[in-house]
Each structure stands twice: as structure tokens, then as C-alpha cells.
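Sample pair:
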Amino acid sequence: MPPRSNESRGARERQRRKNACKIGALLRTKRDYTEALRCFEDSLVVRLQLSGKEADEIASSYFDLGSVHDLLNADKKAIFCYSESIRMYVAMDAEPKLSVAKALSNKAAIVMSKEDDDQRAMHIYHRALDVRRACLGPAASERPA
């Protein structure tokens, strides 16, 4: 039997990562947060091993981890993961992304409810709103008549 090439190994790792993400998302939906966290952590490890070309997927993994930590009330971990996701998305693109706005909004919600820092939360919410406007344009109420 011939040895497996690095290319086929990479393909297997990509499939493993995709499966871990899908399973993690399903488990999060079913509220099995501990197992969802394990799947998303596994996906992140694989993505970090294959990093370079797939920074967008790493940022997505951090977002997924942040969402589960948020549901588990692990606020510091959630904020860290959302911050990493935001940092990576911003570093990758000059174009604003709705993913950044969502991560900013989720981070602001934690800061407001758990850290009781309204000023900081409002600053983060305003950043999220600016990104959403850059992606989607002004809201109907903000457009000239």
C-alpha cells in the first residue's frame, strides 16, 4: 500500500474540521454546550495547524467558541474569543464584514450585562453599528426623504 500524500492528509484534516464545526453547531442548537465546546475547540486546533490560507475559518472558529462560552456564562473566555475573531477579521480585510459587527455586538452585550460597564459597552455597540452601516448602508430611518 503506498504511503498517503500530504495532500490527502490535508484533505482529511479539512474534512475533520468541517465535521467538527457541523457537529458543534448541531450540539449548540441542542444545548449540549460542553460537547459543542469540545467540537469547536477541535476544529480550531485543526484550523490553526492548517493556518495561513484559512484565516477566515480561524476567525470563524473563535466566534463559534465565543458563542458557546457566552452561553456557558464564561464571560472572560467569550470576550477573549470574540476579540480574537474581530482582530483576525479586521486584519484580513479592508472590507467590513457582518461577522465583525455580530462579534462586536455579542461582546458589547457581555460587557453591559456582566461587567456593568455601560460606557465601554456603548462604545463597542457604536463600533458594531458603524460596521453594519458600512456593510449594509444606512437604515431606512437614516436615509434622506
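Residues 36 and 145 are 47 Å apart (CA to CA).
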